[in-house]
Design goal:
Blueprint (H helix, E strand, L loop, with lengths): L1 E6 L5 E6 L5 H7 L19 E4 L4 H4 L4 H7 L9 E3 L12 E4 L6
Parallel strand pairs: 1-5
Antiparallel strand pairs: 1-2, 3-4, 3-5
């Protein structure tokens, strides 16, 4: 288990205990986190799980693959720390990770 902290654009914070092996998107959906729609169900075919990974965690989440980068082209407000939550697998190493949701996802 790893604690993942989701922060809405409004500042509302949601802390969840997420099972290792799930994606950050799956943990959000299972815990009814607002702003993570996951329209494609985690197939990396949309950008409705766009998050900003807190800078302290970027090295631990790895770099986005080419397919994820292509999907991020469709997201609003993309920043250097933008990721698709469906592409980040939860590991014990991510315990305490903070992700923020873009304004367009509320």
């Amino acid at each position: 288990m790893a604690k993942i902290i989701y922060i809405e654009h409004s500042g509302a914070s949601h802390e969840v205990d997420a099972k290792t092996g799930l994606s950050v998107m799956e943990a959000a959906v299972k815990n009814n986190i607002p702003g993570i729609d996951a329209d494609c169900g985690g197939a990396c075919a949309c950008a409705t799980c766009h998050v900003y990974v807190d800078s302290a965690w970027l090295d631990k989440t790895g770099k986005p693959a080419a397919m994820e980068e292509s999907m991020l082209d469709f997201a609003e407000g993309v920043e250097p720390n933008s990721r698709l939550a469906c592409q980040i697998k939860i590991t014990d190493e991510l315990d305490g990770m903070i992700v923020r949701l873009p304004e367009s996802q509320h």
